[in-house]
Amino acid sequence: MLGSPALQVVLNSSCDMLLRHIATPLGGLLAFCPSSSFAQNTPCQTTTVQASVPTSSNVALNSYSYCGGNLDVSVYIANVNYNKVVTLYYTDSQGVSTPLTSLALGYNSSIPNTNYEFWSANTPVYLDGITELLNLTYVAKDIGQTYVQQLQLPVKASGNAPPSPAAIPAPYATPNGFSDDITSWLAPTNGSQADFSKTRMFLNINPDIDGAAKGTVVAARSGPSYDQKLPDYEYDWVRDSSLTMDVVRSLYAASTVDKFTRKYKDAMFHYAEGRAVEQNDPSLTFAGLGEPKFYLNNTAFTGPWGRPQNDGPATAAITLMDFANDYMKKGGSLSSVRDRIWNSTANPLKAPVLKDLLFVASNWSSPSFDLWEEEESTHFYTRLVQRRALVMGAKFATMLGDSATSGTLSSAATQLTATLDQFWSPNRKLILYEYGPVLAGKNSFVDIAVILGVIHGYAGDGVYSYTNDRVLASALKISTSFLDVYPIAKTVQDSKSLPLGIPIG
Fold first, then answer.
1. Do the beta carbons of residue 81 and residue 136 sit within 8 Å?
2. Of 132, 373, 374, 484, which residue is the catalytic one?
3. 63 phi and psi angles, rounded to 5 deg
4. Domains observed in the chain
5. 370 a catalytic residue
């Protein structure tokens, strides 16, 4: 839904026909027009601020409308570089501006015979409300320039009253027997899914690809060297690699067969060394250790991308600290842990953990891109995995006798923990996936990244645990939001008449 006048006319005259059938990616169907007489009784009012392309500014508001709880905005943007971040800031119904009272705009179209583009957004904002448009901010990231248009425009609502929030659907089944089912399904017998997945996973660890460095974990063999017409994922993503290697770490911890134990141990030490080499690559961009992906020779990808991604250093440190603990339980030496896992100062090309942890301690409060690589903001997933890394790191440093680093990490963890409650939205009864601008297509703030954050980032100390009331409320809202999205959700029993879980995407 874009902010052009032509489209606004269509919406005004056919709201029931159009808006009642708009599917959101994560929230079922939106119904912005509770009354079938919307168009006849209370039409939307659009305010045009600037009707033509600007001649002396790089950002200018074209038009806006607040109708039926929906904010619709259209903006002129000068095309001065590739990576653009365009944000509209406003005040809520109490006249307060917070990171939530901002709207991320997206590219709409180029404007013929000019160097300008239309950017726009259309999203519900009625849960927080809106009273005034404050300013437009356009960050041209590639050239390091920021352009601002001050607005101070009072906003009046038009159209029908906003809809009432939809009730959460009641679950259609109580989970029963899941633990037995999943244990049976994951049993690592020959020919099982677990066996197949494990074989495929190890093909991508230290892959047999020309030029691949030791410790490389390739996301997918789909790049030019694999000669397939698929999206090019033949890179080593820092976060994805750490999560993959955490599986190897689990296999190592459980292994009782010497040849497999050695295989998993060697893979983990290779991974540690590969991460250390990445950290010292001279081609790192401004993102530093927040650089999200590398070529298979361990040099940084420097093309346009969503960077920094500051969750990667945290998840890498978590995986390697867990491995170090398992390694010592199996008789590994503390000196090997210090030299090959921890001490980045003495062994910068072998031991990555200290360097990653100090980066987290120094950068946890900085905005970064989320794990979906979509939006630069403050993200629940990133904060939670950073917190786990800091909490674990403080204990790990103490175990190694490094009290100064332990104090640094512990202090950062305390400061970070104090920010987590900002992600809880009382209006939505939901943990927000990000504390920042409304992202196009995710106006519900519902995202499975919240649950992944708990799975990957819970530090075992009761802070946002698996049974936390806010986590459970969010999990219920996230899972049930798919009931109207996937037709398979209408199948609630299997061939044995046992209940099926809700499919989640």
1. no
2. 373
3. -160, 165
4. 5-10+41-154 (2.60.40.2440), 200-417 (1.50.10.10)
5. yes
* Total Cβ atoms within 10 A of residue 363: 20
CB 131 within 8 A of CB 93: yes
Contact between 292 and 239 (Cβ < 8 Å): yes
With 0-12 CB in 10 A as exposed, 13-18 as middle and 19+ as buried, what is 359? buried
For the question of residue 234 being annotated catalytic, the response is no
Two tokens at 394? 């403080």
Structural tokens at position 276: 């250390």
For 421, which DSSP code?
A: G
Secondary structure (3-state) at 493: strand
- Let me know: does 119 contact 106? Beta carbons within 8 Å: yes
Distance between CA atoms of 97 and 280, rounded to whole angstroms? 40
pLDDT digits (tens, 9 = 90+) for 60-83: 999 999 999 999 999 999 999 988
Number of CB atoms found within 10 A of residue 463's CB: 16
Q: What is the C-alpha separation between 51 and 76, in angstroms, rounded?
A: 10
- What the block records as the tokens of 408 is 């640094």
Q: pLDDT for 377-422, tens place per residue?
A: 899 999 999 999 999 999 999 999 999 999 999 999 999 999 999 9
* CA-to-CA separations, 258 to 11, 253, 483, in angstroms, rounded: 68, 12, 47
Which listed residue (273, 322, 356, 370) is catalytic?
Answer: 370
